[in-house]
Model the fold of this input.
Amino acid sequence: MNRFFITGGAGFIGSAFVRLLLEERPSCNVTNFDALTYAGNMDNLEGLDKTRHQLVQGDVAARDSVLAALESGTDAIINFAAESHVDRSILSADEFLRTNILGTQVLLDAARECGVRRFLQVSTDEVLGSLPEDETAYFTENSAFAPNSPYAASKAAAEHLVRAAHHTFGLDTVVTRCGNNYGPRQFPEKFLPLALSNAMNDEPIPLYGDGQNVRDWIYVMDHCRAILLALRQGHAGAVYNIGARNEHRNIEVAESLLDALGKPRSLIRFVKDRLGHDRRYAIDPSRAESELGWRPLETWESGLRKTIAWYQENSRWIERARSGAYRDYYKQQYGTEVGAA
Ligand code: NAD
Ligand code: DAU
Done:
């Protein structure tokens, strides 16, 4: 495979994947198709080789734009494009349905029409709902779908469409389902970069509910390496759960960040809980480990160290991300201004 069509490649995980691909495949060519929504960021593409990577601004739900950008001879479509934030889907679901569901179907149709060899859907463990706080329960590839937020429901619908395209039309598809990513260039609406950037500025960290919800954290490059392996070695029609066996309660994440920065734990503020807040995510990645030979390279400690260092060294990136429309969103979501003590 040499010619890739990547959607959402100006976002957090997509841009990390583009970087990995260009490094790992010196002769590859990447079309990066991204609508550049609030979450798409040209700063994320700084320094990439322009001869092998072309950004095309476009909407995955717009059939004509997708077909115009999709070159014949494309080996694989990797679909990262999505509205990705649960809290925003609770405020309004419209864009989630358009991008995440309709957009996926448009891409599947385009893949068939243009003879693309493989379609990889980047999905999420949230399609499987919430686990009890019982350490022995894990999400496997056979767990039942039980999406609880409009975001999760839209990603579940997208997965069903991918399955249907494989079953009905024989399209070669692979689905990867991952948990909570963290690392460089994550938009600060998500908990970890929000907590980190707030703490760096001595601003409070808003913790929903009792702060005891559990997430299964993975360093973004480990997720991207798994996607690349699934693309190369995954079975047609298969689903792979990707997780680093790294569960932490939200309060522990906040405390770890504060301790690493040398900031007081009194910056933690308990705020109103998220509606329908999933209690625990925990992924069993055995299939990816045995079939793809994948293992995470980063530990929680090394991943956090790298992430904190990146945010400390890239204050301009954070300032830009926290400006403009982010301030309006923050006020609406938290009832306080960005920067308020
Ligand atoms: P992100 O919000 O940082 O980036 C999304 C990208 O998609 C942005 O560049 C945005 O401009 C683009 N986009 C949005 N709507 C579009 C449209 N209509 N047409 C074209 N491009 C559009 O998201 P992320 O955190 O990088 O997540 C990427 C993918 O991985 C998503 O599909 C998400 O569901 C999935 N995922 C994310 C996580 C996580 O922890 N962040 C975990 C598992 C799976
Ligand atoms: O599990 C994979 C999913 O992880 C991805 O599919 C989503 O795209 C991604 O956003 C993420 O979803 P979460 O809802 O788990 O991530 P978020 O960063 O929004 O929240 C992580 C946890 O922190 C969650 O329990 C809610 C809590 N939280 C979040 C925010 C934004 C807070 O306590 N305070 C906050 O301000």
In short: The chain has a mean pLDDT of 97. Residues 94 and 150 are 9 Å apart (CA to CA).
